[in-house]
Here is the input.
Amino acid sequence: MENMNYLQGLVAGMKTLGVGLKTTMREFFTKKITEQYPENRKELVMFDRFRGSLVMPHNEQNEHKCIACGLCMTNCPNGTIEVKSKMIETEDGKKKKILDQYIYDQGICMYCQVCVRVCPQDAITFDQSFETAVFDRQKLVRQLNQPGSKCQEKKPVARPAAAPKPAEKPAVAPASAPAEAADAAEKTPKTE
Amino acid sequence: MGEGLGGAIDSMFNLQTWTSAIHAWLLGLVPEWAAILLECVVVALLIITLYAVFAIALIYMERKVCAFFQCRLGPNRVGKWGLLQVFSDVFKMLQKEIINMRKSDMFLHDLAPFLVVTASMLTFACLPWNKGGHIIDFNVGLFFMIAVSSIGVVGILLAGLGSNSKYPMIGSMRAGAQLISYEISIGITMLTIVALSGTMQISEIVQQQADNGWNIIRGHVPAVIAFLIYLIAGNAECNRGPFDLPEGESELTAGYHTEYSGMHFGYFYLAEYLNLFIAAGIASTIFLGGWAPLHIAGLDGFNGVMDAIPGAVWFIGKTFFVIFLLMWERWTFPRLRIDHILSLEWKYLMPLSLINLLLMALVVVFGLGINV
Here is the structure.
């Protein structure tokens, strides 16, 4: 029996060694993944989840989605974000808080992406720009909302019944619900 | 292919023709002792130059092959395709200071790298470069080769002993245990080929392969097994690949050459790569026919074309092919633990090679070898 184990081990070992050799030989001929960075900066494409720097996307009418709730500011572990809001009076006489300045200090950002995750409106995101070296730290403090921009009018969103209760947060969005509703359902518990 | 032309090519590629012509010419100019002295110096210079050139080529090849196996590009910034990278490394090393440690054995410490380099250079001189292009060639050639390559172990042990430091000590003890163990496999696989060839003279072994076909084909099954065992043991003998325990970075820093700097370290580095070349060169000599061109029985035209390629090209080409195999092995397998290394040798490789030797003896006795 001992001898059988010895021989079986020998044969099995040689088989696995062969598998290893085959794998490396295949890798030898695959396309190399090295990025030759300064030369290829024209065509360099970072991967999807890459966190370059925080941006606030604006649409063609110079509108952003930020409602100045300040959740990103309170959740930021480094105090990177400062949301300056102001109160205005709408035509129908209601008071409303709107965004005045969205200040982002990239010099102390640690790219944890908490701000993007807590945002109930998907107003901010990370882009792919990473060449941010400057000589003066103050240049890294930027205002993300464009001058003269305003908040997008909110579309009425049909919320699923389960959404408002945080305890019953659905692990998977129902397949039948529209994408936006599912999105809202995912966001709601976090904001409460 | 006519006899006359074939004979002309034969004598043109036979270095013996040229060396004896040069010898005769020198004898006309100077007395015999001076001629021999001069030839010795020229050959020695030739060997040292080849040694350096191959080391540089191998370091570059190692970096590139390793990179390609790991899906990288390797050095490509210094010179075209990184060709000047190794040269810049060599110049960097030449500028470095050689440091002497207090309380280390100065004499042994400085002697060790020279022993290592001497051993690999002596073995290097045994390789058959071409027909008639042997530098050291006599009737116990393979035996001599194994003997001089073992001097390297002494150098490594002295490096550990003379450094007065625990890392080199442990590293050299490991290296000693490993090298001495794997020399057994290497010796037995060589013995397998000696049994097939009936001679230990390297030129004779290669000449037989040129006449009757390469040993790996002549000896078929046992020769292939011996070749595979040699590839594994050869990597272990060079302290490379999955068997690079003497220099475990995490536990032993650089192993036996931890305390060396500058060109003393450079000698160890040089010897490591040249040992790789030598291991591959021996494999191509005893298994793949050395300088013997590839012949396929029945295809006379093809054989004629193959004959037109010089023997040195064949030898170096085959050697680099075997080096590639060794690098493939090195960059595929993870490192072994020291007890695994020793049990691989004593429990698997040595019994296998002994059985293989018996198999080869049977093949030889019953005349089962394939002779082209």
Observations:
- The interface with chain A takes residues 67-73, 76, 328-329, 331-333, 347-348 of chain B (CB under 8 Å).
- The CA atoms of residues 78 and 88 of chain B lie 8 Å apart.
- The radius of gyration of chain B is 22 Å.
- The longest helix of chain B spans residues 32-69.
